[in-house]
Amino acid sequence: MPRLNNFYGFPACGRASLNSILALSKLRMLLNSCVFGAAVFSLAACQGGGDGTDNSGMNSSPDTTTNSSGNPATMADITDVVLVTGQSNALGADTGYDAAIDTPVDRAYAYTSEGWQIADLNQIWDLNWHPRNDPATDPSNNFAFHFARKVALRRPEKVVGFILVTAPGEAIDHWDGGGEFFLKITDRVSAALNELPSKSSIDGILWHQGESDWADNDYYSNKLSTLISNFRSESWYGFNKPFICGETVEAPVNRRLMALNSDNDRWTGCVESDGLSTILDNLHFSAEGLRTLGTRYATKYLQMTE
């Protein structure tokens, strides 16, 4: 039986034959490396733009945002904090969700059950009321989300955070100063601000309520005026911050809400509900309606603060 070379496993032979074998082996290794290299280049070209270039960033989301320094925003960068309160349309219950449209942006934050987080409709923002039993798998829409999103996208220098405290089905007297719910709002706002190192006050209030009051009367106007004064007396709000309300769905009380656009107070205003779609009950806005409503609130807020 011929003796085998321990490394290559070929029959033992003379030096010339061994050199020939070594040369052939090196040639085979070289050919294999060329084939492998060509395959890698071909794969890179397929993953890139066809010419081997890296186009991995071409399909990134257009809604990805950064702070003014060019780095991803954090909650420490939040510039504008807004309280959102009202009835069920402020909550946004039983509305649709579209993952392609309702995408988070990294300069829009919400105060959630887990503290400040980049706003996402899958979160719980109101500890006692939230859109559905399991928002993680079956989220509803919300105009506050779209308000924060629009402000952030329109103003690259801003990082927006919102605090949602709602009371579906309640009339305006539920918000009376010194009452249980008003104290709940105060506690919630204080807790949210305590987590922000650079903020000691909020920058505005979005008010969406009136479905339970409905009527066009002085009672509502007087209660709303008192409510605004009560909020302004809080150390975390003040007198030179926007208070913006929104119309309900075709209710007589809308005339009282819209009066905030024509009073002598430059820091109060109201957005219209004209043309906003609703769900079947014709009382609550649809997901599409809430998206548009959030945009209107954002437009009004920027008009009042710039």
Characterise this structure:
Helix 3 (143-154) crosses helix 7 (287-305). The chain contains seven helices and seven strands; from the N terminus they run αβαββαβαβαβαβα. The chain has two domains: 1-60; 75-305, Rossmann fold (3-Layer(aba) Sandwich). Helices cover 34% and strands 12% of the residues. The radius of gyration is 31 Å and the shape is globular. It is an alpha/beta fold. Mean pLDDT is 81; it is low at 1-66.
In short:
The chain has 306 residues and is α/β, with parallel strands linked by helices. It has seven helices and seven strands.
Describe this protein with a few key phrases.
single chain; 306 residues; alpha/beta; Rossmann fold; 2 domains; seven-stranded mixed beta sheet; 7 helices; 34% helix; 12% strand; globular; disordered N terminus
How many structural units, i.e. domains?
2
Determine and state the CATH class of the largest domain: Alpha Beta
The class by helix and strand makeup works out as alpha/beta
* Portion in helices: 25-40%
Sequence-ordered SSE layout with sheet pairings:
Layout: H1 15-47, E1 80-86, H2 88-91, E2 108-112, E3 115-118, H3 143-154, E4 160-166, H4 180-194, E5 204-208, H5 218-232, E6 243-246, H6 254-258, E7 268-271, H7 287-305
Parallel strand pairs: 1-4, 1-5, 2-4, 5-6, 6-7
Antiparallel strand pairs: 2-3
